[in-house]
Amino acid sequence: MTDMRLIVVGAAGRMGRALVRAVVEAEGTTLVGAIEREGAPELGQDAGMLAGIGELGVPLTDDALPVFARADGVLDFTTPAATVAFSELAAQARIAHIVGTTGLSADDLARLEAAARHAVVVRSGNMSLGVNLLAAMVRKVAAALDADFDIEIVEMHHRNKVDAPSGTALMLGEAAAAGRGIALEDHAVWTRHGHTGARRRGDIGFQTLRGGSVVGDHTVIFAGPHERIELRHVAEDRSLFARGAVKAALWARGRKPGLYAMADVLGLGD
Ligand SMILES: NC(=O)C1=CN([C@@H]2O[C@H](COP(=O)(O)OP(=O)(O)OC[C@H]3O[C@@H](n4cnc5c(N)ncnc54)[C@H](OP(=O)(O)O)[C@@H]3O)[C@@H](O)[C@H]2O)C=CC1
Ligand SMILES: O=C(O)C1=N[C@H](C(=O)O)C[C@H](O)C1
After folding, report:
1. Residue 21 belongs to domain with CATH number
2. Which position among 97, 118, 140, 161 bears the catalytic label?
C-alpha cells in the first residue's frame, strides 16, 4: 500500500513539532503539508527545520485548501476554533481528521459530529495508550466501589496550558461517572474555595495544577473509609501523544465516516 499522506496543522506549536517528527519517523506515512495560522511568524519556514530534524521540503503555509486536496489525513492539535474550521475542510476533502485539541465546547463537539457524517474523525483528550488504559481501569474501579469512596481527579500541566481541567481529566471524570452510572455534569465539582460545606456524597472533584514544564500528570483518587486507591499516569514526553495520533491516522484509513475515540483505535472500546 502507498504511504498515507498526512498534514500537520498548528505545525509550529509544541505538539505540531512533535507530530512532524512522528510522521517522518513512522512507517507508512509521509508529510505532505504543514499549516499554521494566518500571520504566524513561522510561515514559509520548513516544517522539518522547525521540528529539529532537518529540511523536509515542506514549508509552513496558511493556505489550507490546496494542501487538504492532496492529503489522506490531517493531525490537529491546535485550538477549538481552528479545529472546528479544519473539521469542515477535512469533511469537504473526505480525509481523516485526527483531533487532539482540548477545551472544545458542546457546540464545537456538535460541529465535529456533523463533519463526521462525511469523513472519519478520531478525537481524544489524550492519545496515549497509558491514559486510555487508565480510563478503562477507572471505569471498572468506579463500578466496583460505591459512593463511600470519594472520587477526586488531580492533574498538573506546564505553565502555558490554556484550558482547565485538562481534556484527559475530563475523560477520566467521564469514565468514573460511567462506571458509577451517573452523569458527570450532575456530580462534578470544578473548584473549591471558602466555606464550601462538607463534601456531597457521590461528587467527583477536579483539581488543576499549573507550573513549569510538566508534560501531563493525572491521578484519580478513590478515598474510602480508612483506605485510599490512587491510579496515576505520568506522560514523560510529547512524542507519546504524537505517536498515538499517527497510529490513529493509519487506523482511520479506509474506515467508514464517523466519530471515533482513541479507545476504538486501541481496541479498548465497550
Ligand atoms: N489529545 C492529546 O493527546 C493532547 C492534546 N493536546 C492539546 O493540543 C492542543 C495544542 O497544544 P500545544 O501544542 O501545547 O499548544 P501550542 O499553542 O503550542 O500549539 C497550537 C498551535 O496551533 C496554532 N494555531 C492556532 N490557530 C491556528 C489556525 N487557525 N490554523 C493553524 N494553526 C493554528 C498555534 O499558533 P499560534 O501560537 O501562533 O496561535 C500554535 O502553533 C491543546 O488543546 C492541548 O490541550 C496536547 C497534548 C496531547
Ligand atoms: O496541553 C497539554 O499539554 C496536554 N493536553 C492534553 C489534555 O488537556 O489532557 C493531554 C496532555 O495531558 C497534554
Report:
1. 3.40.50.720
2. 161
Residues 227 and 115 in one domain: no
Residue-range definition of the domain harbouring residue 211: 129-235
How many whole angstroms from 118 Cα to the centroid of ligand 1? 24
Same domain (yes/no): 211, 158:
yes
Domain identity same for 114 and 195: no
Q: Which atom of ligand 1 is closest in space to residue 80's alpha carbon?
A: 43
Residue 11 CA to ligand 1 centre (angstroms): 8
Number of compact structural domains in the chain: 2
* pLDDT tops 90 at residue 270: no
Task: Assess whether 89 and 216 both reside in one domain.
Answer: no
Q: What is the pLDDT of residues 106-146, one digit of tens each?
A: 999 999 999 999 999 999 999 999 999 999 999 999 999 99
CA separation, residue 220 to residues 134, 171, 236, 249 (Å): 9, 11, 18, 29
Is ipTM > 0.85 here?
yes
What is the percentage of the chain residues whose pLDDT exceeds 90? 99
Considering the domain architecture, whether residues 72 and 150 belong to the same structural domain is answered as no
Q: Is 256 a catalytic residue?
A: no
The pocket around ligand 1, CB under 6 angstroms, is made up of 9-10, 12-16, 35-37, 40, 77-79, 82, 100-103, 124-127, 167, 241
Q: Assess whether 86 and 106 both reside in one domain.
A: yes
Greatest distance between any 2 Cα atoms in the chain: 62
- Catalytic: 157? yes
Terminal CA-CA length for the chain? 30
pLDDT digits over 190-248, tens only?
999 999 999 999 999 999 999 999 999 999 999 999 999 999 999 999 999 999 999 99
- Beta-strand ranges (E) seen in the chain are 4-9, 29-35, 60-61, 73-76, 96-99, 120-123, 150-157, 188-189, 204-210, 216-224, 227-235, 258-260
pLDDT tens digit sequence for 181-191: 999 999 999 99
